[in-house]
Amino acid sequence: MSITIDNDTATLPDRIRRFPFPYTGDNYRYSANVEPSRKLTETEAGGWGTTVVDVDEFYVDDLKLRAEVLQRDPSRINALPHMRPAVWDAITTLLPEMAEDNPDKMSWQREGDRVRWRNTLLNLDIEFTVGDDASLPTGDPLDFLGSQIQDDIVFLEQRDKQLWLDAGVVTFAADWSIGFDVGMNFTEIHSPVPRVNEEKIISRAQHFLMSLQPGESYRRTNWTMTIDRRLDTSTETYPQWAGDRSTISTDPALPERVHLRVEVQQLIRLPRSGSILFLIRTYLLPLTDIAQVPAWRRRMGEVLAELPDDMAEYKGIIRYRKAASDWLLSG
After folding, report:
1. At 125, is the secondary structure helix, strand, or coil?
2. What share of the chain is helix, strand, coil (3-state, %, to 5)?
3. How do residues 46-99 score in pLDDT, each as one tens digit?
4. How many CB atoms lie within 10 A of CB 8?
5. How far is 265 from 20, CA to CA, in rounded Å?
6. Other beta carbons less than 10 A from residue 36's beta carbon
7. Catalytic residue among 118, 204, 220, 230
């Protein structure tokens, strides 16, 4: 498939060229939209997706924000005791791959169970023993993993013909709570989403995940909109940002403040523990940046104009989606 480039991509900043623009048509409905990981997806602005763990210009700032969120609210990291081997499995799976993808910034050297991990972006050079929590700087493998990758991290365990959310560190949730969801099954977690149960999307998604083989990795995208570049829109912080939804439609700064929020969700069957690792990487781009790519501007405007009210209500955008759509289409 050929891609028509609307702009000279060399003149666009990285945040636009690498943005995972989610729309493939002028309307949107929920779907599994699953595809293999590590596959380049070309867009009108550039492309994205060649790595599982993306390291971009916001890496240091995002991890600093995660540390601040966890300090204020330790409930954002939660793990049932039996998940410890799965967390170590994730560490020994993801960090070597990050080092391979970013050899000028990171390195992973392992001899037996001894590891030396260097991450120049964080001025980190440490040694630890795989499986020994006390050898890590944080003393907690899940906390340590969350300090190295920008993604939110969720672990799903398979039992009783269901998937269960048994561990996670989630500081950048889009209006949900890891503290509330830990211990729930896959169907319970997704039951509030409109249309997905009637269309059997959740049951199909769960069947797909449970059929993943060790080492297999797939991805999908999801989207909503956020006012300002606010990564932490968890249920716990609702009072801090919910009010903006009712006032932004008349704000002259709407194009700068309203952001398209895209999650790239990686679905990985860990090779040793067999647990399913669910990574959620969040990207934010203001409408002013969307508008720098004419094809994106028109398409997003059409999607927002056509989106059914129940989906707009669930995404929390119903009060301002018309204003956003009108601005995009006016260009």
Report:
1. strand
2. 40, 25, 35
3. 999 999 999 999 999 999 999 999 999 999 999 999 999 999 999 999 999 999
4. 7
5. 11
6. 10
7. 220
pLDDT at 31: 80
Please give the structure tokens belonging to residue 151.
Answer: 């993604």
Q: Is 116 a catalytic residue?
A: no
> CB of 282 within 8 A of CB of 225?
no
Please, are residues 78 and 140 in contact by the beta-carbon 8 Å criterion? no
Tokens of 107: 């390195």
State the helix-helix crossing angle for 294-306 and 321-330, rounded to 10 degrees. 140
CB atoms within 10 A of CB 312: 19
Which residue did the predictor score with more confidence, 181 or 127? 127
CB 46 within 8 A of CB 9: yes
Query: Who's near 30: CB < 8 A, 6+ residues apart?
Result: 193, 195, 196, 199, 201, 311
* Cα pseudo-dihedral 122, 228, 243, 65, rounded to 10: 0
Q: Is 159 helix (H, G, I), strand (E, B) or coil?
A: strand
- DSSP per-residue letters across 61-86: HHHHHHHHHHHH-GGGEEE-GGGHHH
Q: Which residue type occupies 110?
A: R
Report the alpha-carbon distance of residue 135 to residue 133 in Å, rounded. Answer: 5
Kindly state the tokens that stand for 98.
């990050």
Strand, coil or helix: 319 = coil
| Continuous H helices in the chain | 14-17, 59-72, 84-101, 141-146, 178-181, 186-190, 201-210, 238-241, 254-257, 287-290, 294-306, 309-314, 321-330
Residue 56 is encoded by which pair of tokens? 């971009």
How far is Cα 253 from Cα 247, in angstroms, rounded to an integer? Answer: 11
Instruction: Report the 10 Å Cβ neighbour count for 315.
Output: 19
